[in-house]
C-alpha cells in the first residue's frame, strides 16, 4: 500500500471508503468524492487544502479510462465523465484516490496516469481527456446535484440512488454540468489537458 501524509492513518480512510462503496454506486462518482472530501474535513486529520476533486471529461463526453472495476482486464471503460480525489502530499508526491479502480488505493499519481490514462498519443483526438481540478473546500461549498441526470425520460432511476438527501447549496440544487464542462470560462477550478495535468501534479511527462 502506498504511503502518504494523507494516508498516515490509512485504515480509517480505507474503512470509510469501503462504506462509500457499499452505500453508493459506481455511477455516482461525483458524490463519492464529495463525501470523501466531507469526511476529510470533518475528521480534521489531514490538511484539506492538499486535496482536490478532479472531474475528467471532454467536449464529446467520451473518455477512456483503464483499470476500472466496471471492466476488468485490458480494455478501457468509456465514461461520459469520471471523478477522482487528488492528494498533493506535503512530502512531494501526489496520489489519486479512485473508488472505481482496480489499481492500489491510494495510487501514486504517476502510476495511475500511466496505467489508467496511458498516453494521448495513442488516443484519437476526440477521445482525449481533460481535467477540471477543484480545491476540496470549493467543491464542498459549491457542488450541487439533484441526481436528475440519473433518471430516464420516464423519470425512473437508471441506477438506485444513494439513500441520503441530495447535495445542494444555498444558490443551487443542480450545477453538475458546470463541473463536467471542460470550458475554462465555466464553473470552478482550473481545466488542464493530460500533459498539463501531469506537468502540474506529476513527476513525468506523457
UniProtKB/TrEMBL annotation:
Assigned GO CC terms: cytosol; nucleus
Q: What is the lineage of its organism?
A: Eukaryota, Metazoa, Chordata, Craniata, Vertebrata
Recorded GO MF terms? protein-N-terminal asparagine amidohydrolase activity; protein-N-terminal glutamine amidohydrolase activity
Question: Which gene underlies this protein?
Answer: NTAQ1
Q: Give the protein's recorded name.
A: Protein N-terminal glutamine amidohydrolase
The organism is Ursus maritimus
Top-rank taxon of the source lineage equals Eukaryota
Entry's family note:
Belongs to the NTAQ1 family.
Q: Which Pfam families match?
A: Nt_Gln_amidase (PF09764)
Oligomeric and partner information: Monomer.
State the reactions this protein catalyses: N-terminal L-glutaminyl-[protein] + H2O = N-terminal L-glutamyl-[protein] + NH4(+)
EC assignment: the record states: 3.5.1.122
